[in-house]
């Protein structure tokens, strides 16, 4: 969609007649006459209608030679319904479009339209079928729109030939992200070779999002907030050449992800810079892979962000002795050993207690006797008092049992 060359002629609404007349004053009469004739022709050829015969919508600049139409920073609230049929490069940017309805381009039969730039149009909604019936569309830029909803059927029922899709700073809403994931997974963009998802603040990617992109070559996920790639599958991206993950919050990458990258035959450039690598035991696999892999760009510059005592250390310079990994930190087994230890200690205490009892058995016996005697004396005192005011039969009974 890179605009090649400038748009040479401004063919918007024709200049008002007054301006031309003012410029003429003071010039020779014959030139003035020619201008008058020109103005007359202009009026005859439809000065009053919205569109000139050459065909350029109000508020846009058109160049037939460059096959380009630009409707930039205007007040358009909808896609102009009268785009010239030759248009190959269409820029509608910086307008308050807000929503792209179904069939926004369909009625105009834009058979040549190859590059469509819709960035910065305050788009919140892209409806089903909004981008259908564009048989030549190769590049689409939807960046800088605060998308809240992106229909999985935005390109219509059949597949789209789209090759480049830019969604920079356009997926801050989870709804739009899920819509994109569904759209990609449905296989609507099987020819897509470049996907730009930078600047979106993405934390996690929907599982299986890249599962149906067999032609993808360049994937840009830089400047997001990705914390991990545990659920992201890169399988099936047999053409992938570059993957940009710089400026994210990655702390560690698992063996599964590394193995997938190892298996991608075309992957030659992985951008990893400015992440939040956590240099503990779990990073061993990543370090080992980094040392052997030549896929990572600028791997010498990668440094640990945590823990504090490893901060700033180059990932490539880490060796096992830095990581304290020899003792496996296995909580359940640790707990088990501590329970066994506790049991042994309790058993020992019990045994000592019994031993003390045994050694003191004579003293204890004596002590028990003393207690029994004391009790008996006490009880007899009670009996005595009881006998005084109780039934004689009961007194007999109790004194019998006492003996
Ligand atoms: C689309 O237009 C914006 C604004 O003019 C520009 O920054 C961007 O580079 C264009 N996209 C493409 C793919 O050319
Ligand atoms: C857009 O509309 C505003 C007011 O609605 C007006 O002031 C401004 O001139 C318009 N801009 C263009 C490029 O037409
Ligand atoms: C994808 O590209 C191939 C080869 O360039 C082409 O034949 C096919 O029609 C394209 N797919 C779509 C859906 O346009
Ligand atoms: C990164 O993305 C944020 C939005 O998430 C944006 O404001 C910022 O400008 C981007 N940074 C760069 C360097 O592009
Ligand atoms: C990964 O996927 C599983 C199920 O597929 C889900 O339960 C889990 O929450 C996901 N984890 C992340 C970090 O997305
Ligand atoms: C990761 O893979 C490497 C080699 O492929 C292997 O040596 C290592 O044990 C694996 N790590 C884990 C945690 O499975
Ligand atoms: C990734 O993107 C950053 C800018 O966000 C750029 O500086 C870097 O060169 C890119 N890396 C790759 C491998 O594309
Ligand atoms: C570990 O790395 C340090 C430098 O960071 C080096 O001095 C030391 O010899 C290395 N130890 C082993 C066992 O490789
Ligand atoms: C490794 O463990 C020892 C003892 O637990 C500790 O003193 C040392 O600081 C640890 N080193 C690192 C790099 O974590």
UniProtKB/TrEMBL annotation:
Residues 1-50 form the signal peptide. Residues 55-89 form the LRRNT domain. Residues 275-326 form the LRRCT domain. One of its GO terms (biological process) is olfactory learning. It holds the Pfam family LRR_8. Residues 1-25 are annotated as: Disordered. InterPro entries: Cys-rich_flank_reg_C (IPR000483), Leu-rich_rpt (IPR001611), Leu-rich_rpt_typical-subtyp (IPR003591), LRR_dom_sf (IPR032675), LRRNT (IPR000372), Wnt_signaling_inhibitor (IPR052286). It comes from the Eukaryota. PANTHER family: LP06937P (PTHR24364), TROPHOBLAST GLYCOPROTEIN (PTHR24364:SF17). This is Trophoblast glycoprotein.
